């Protein structure tokens, strides 16, 4: 192994190759050759791996500011240092762009229907990928359709509407 030492942290570095890890960079203030923190890089089956051992989260910084973090439990945060979900974006949008209808967001649940939220036919659509049909359409002009591809009114429903006992449907023509 190659070891470069000099002074105290952060000026120490060590590079090891033991057949499994391609590189190990460690830093620390002790002189025993054991780093107080390290990061490992290796490849298996043409996949590049990064690991920081058991030292917690991995953060990606730019200009001295943390931009993204992979927490110890695997959650990813962009704009937050404590992501509470698999992906958490703070103070921003998640954008899906494209010229066709093959972009958007997909919601899948094992054994049940899969839905896409996407820009389709000039508006926003909740699309049932399992049954290949539009469930709800927003046409971009303020019309909403349920069960119809082309809503022509503020609310356009193709099919029966069920109103449960105790509720009413009001019509106001003023």
Task: Please give the structural blueprint.
Layout: E1 2-4, E2 13-15, E3 23-27, E4 37-44, E5 47-51, E6 58-62, E7 65-70, E8 76-78, E9 87-89, E10 104-107, E11 115-120, E12 123-128, E13 133-138, E14 144-146, E15 155-157
Parallel strand pairs: 8-9, 14-15
Antiparallel strand pairs: 1-2, 3-4, 4-5, 6-7, 7-8, 10-11, 11-12, 12-13, 13-14
* Helical coverage, percent range: under 10%
Count every helix, treating DSSP H or I runs of 4 or more residues as helices.
0
Q: Please give the order of strands in the largest beta sheet.
A: 10-11-12-13-14-15
Name the helix and strand elements from N-terminus to C-terminus, one letter apiece.
Answer: EEEEEEEEEEEEEEE
Could you give a short account of the major beta sheet?
Answer: 6 strands, mixed
Q: Would you report the number of β strands? A: 15
Short account of what is shown:
The chain has 174 residues and is mainly beta.
Keywords:
six-stranded mixed sheet; 40% strand; 174 residues
Describe the overall structure.
By secondary structure, the chain is mainly β. Helix content is 0%, strand content 40%. The strands form 4 sheets. It has a 6-stranded mixed sheet, with no helix packed on it. Strand 7 and strand 8 form a beta hairpin. The chain starts with a strand and ends in a 17-residue tail after the last strand. About 4% of the residues have low confidence.
């Amino acid at each position: 192994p190659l070891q470069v030492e000099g002074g105290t942290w952060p000026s120490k570095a060590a590079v090891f190759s033991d057949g499994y890890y391609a590189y190990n960079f460690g830093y620390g203030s002790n002189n025993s050759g054991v780093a107080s923190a390290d990061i490992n890089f290796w490849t298996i089956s043409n996949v590049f791996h990064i690991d920081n051992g058991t030292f917690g989260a991995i953060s990606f910084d730019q200009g001295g500011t943390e931009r993204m973090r992979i927490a110890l439990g695997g959650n990813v945060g962009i704009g937050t240092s404590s992501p509470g979900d698999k992906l958490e974006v703070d103070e921003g949008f998640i954008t899906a762009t494209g010229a066709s209808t093959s972009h958007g967001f997909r919601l899948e649940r094992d054994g049940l229907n899969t839905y896409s939220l996407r820009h389709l036919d000039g508006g926003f659509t909740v699309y049932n990928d399992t049954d290949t049909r539009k469930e709800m359409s927003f046409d971009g002009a303020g019309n909403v359709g349920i069960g119809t591809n082309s809503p022509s009114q503020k609310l356009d429903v193709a099919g029966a509407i069920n109103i449960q006992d105790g509720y009413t449907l009001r019509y106001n023509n003023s």
